[in-house]
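Check my protein:
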Amino acid sequence: MSIFAHVSKAETLPSLLDSDELSFTVFSIDDLQQLIQALDLNPQELLAKNRLRRIEQIYPGAQLKIPGWTIIKYIARAGDTITALSKRFNIPLFIIMRLNGLTAEATLQTRQVLYLPEPCL
């Protein structure tokens, strides 16, 4: 059972999804290192999932498939903030912001659709 009891699988979001797999666009090498640490990724599994041999093959603008993670759809409730969601679900804030095109100061609307990563079990 999902840790997000009130969440359904993502429908379509072509820029982020290959089916319901988590994808991530790399902005910089620091961005890549932050992603690996934040999601506790094995760099070798990340390379294998993306059919790469070396981390140096990853460049800014690259779209990576993230092994072991999927995307789910979350419907915002009254009073939700992205900071609170980050803490509640233990998802790094920068990932929620990136997946949804939001800033840290963004105000969420009740019933606003957000896309959140979820580890595959």
